[in-house]
Structure formats: structure tokens, C-alpha cells
Amino acid sequence: MTTPPSSDLPSAQDVARQVREALTVDSPVAGLVLGSGLGGLANRIEGARSIPYSDLPGFATPTVPGHQGRLIAGTLAGRPVIALAGRFHVYEGHSAAAAAFPVRVLHALGAHTLLLSNAAGGIRRSLQPGDLMIIRDHMNLTWQNPLTGPVVPGDERFPDMSEPWDPELRRLLAESAAAAGVPVTEGVYVGLSGPSYETPAEVRMLERIGADAVGMSTVHEVIVARAIGMRVAGMSCITNLAAGLTEDVISHAEVLEVTSAAGEKFENIAIEFVRRI
Q1: Choosing from 6, 140, 240, 268, which is the catalytic residue?
Q2: I need a labelling partner for 265 at 20 to 30 A (CA). Which of 18, 196, 236, 255 fits?
Q3: pLDDT 10s digits, 189-198
């Protein structure tokens, strides 16, 4: 299923009402978006109630392995959360506005803090597969903005993006990682549209303009989150060295293998993060 442009998307409030009718949803302290291979955190949500994306207007069923396609309500560290287990992407044929629409639903369900996660290729030479990187800033090089078109009621038309990744939440993520005994780094994430991986020449360009890691998601979600007033934190799991930095062939199977191995570290950080919000 291809999701529509922003002008044809349903009301996030209407979808949230449908979710509440299907699930018991407490006031969540955070909304969580679980990226490629990082959906294991969903299994650690206690008292989990879920609904498939296919039952929700404006949502699409992900076609990429590693994305479950379920909205889950429950608790982490004894605190209520709402999680999106998997996402759908612009490279699957969806508009930027549609790809970010689930974030609007999290907000309509009461989540005012958002934790985004993704798999990314490492560009900075010090990064290695399995590293976890707190996102300090990002570049949207998909050439699509999810706010293009008529203003959605309640949106800021021109949201300030000087600090899209909340400094206090970044500090909280770093503290959570230290408490979990997991080393982390910080860096700049660049979002491209995909689905092809980058060429060595493209990676050299991205390195020169200041990118530390590259992926195919996330940037549209944080733009929408800022337009509706959500505070945002994010973490990338570095799954491979980007093209030209290694002789290895890059594959999605490798992405899932590395995120599976690093998944428990990410989960422990996320649980500590929710505990400390």
C-alpha cells in the first residue's frame, strides 16, 4: 500500500481515538520508534497491547525485513510508553509526510518526548560496526520535507531547527548509557532517500560536509516532531562501514545481523532513558 501525501492523510487525533478504542493507552512518558533490527525492545515492554499498522488509517505495512509493523502500548521501567515497532520509508513509495505521520499519532496519544532509533552506515573513520551513536544533529539530503503543503492545524509553519535534537535529552541518553555500562559516541546523521546504498564518491562527499553516519530514515520524523512541539532524542546503531571505507559488500542482511548483536545494548540504554525522563 502506498500512503498518500500530507493533504490526504487522516487526522492524527482520529487515528489516536481508534487506537484508544482498541488498546488501553495510559499517558505515555515517551514515544519510541524502533528502527531496522532494533525491534527487540518491543519484547521487553511489559503488559504489551498492540495493533498492526494495517488496521490504522494513514499507516502502511512495512515491506522491509526487521520492521514488525505494530503499534505497541505498555510499560518500560514501570513507566507507560507507546512504541512503533518498525517504520515505512520514502523508498517504499511513501511521501515524506506519510512516512512521518506515525509520529503525529504518538503525539496525539499523549507522547511529548520522542526517542528515535535507526541503523546507519559509519562514515566517520573512528566508527565501527556495532557502535551506538547519539544523534547530535542531522542533514536532510532526501530533498523532501514532510511539512511541504498546507499547514496541518497545530503545526509551526517554520519550525526552528537550530537544536532539533534536544540537548537535555542527549545528556540523558549519555547518562543512561553510562548507567547501562554501554560506551556511546555522538555524531551527525545524514538522511538520504535510498534504497540504493551510497557510492564511494558520495560517501567522500558526505564525509567532507560533516556527516558521521548515513541512513534512509529518521530526518522526516524529527522535522514533524519539532513542528508539533515534541522534544526529540535519537540513536543510530552503526551496522557497517560506508562504501569506500571497506572492501566488504554492503547488504541488508549484514545490517540485521549487526543490529541483532547490538540490540541488547540499545535496549538497556532505552530502558534507562525511560526510567530517567
Answers
A1: 240
A2: 196
A3: 999 999 998 9
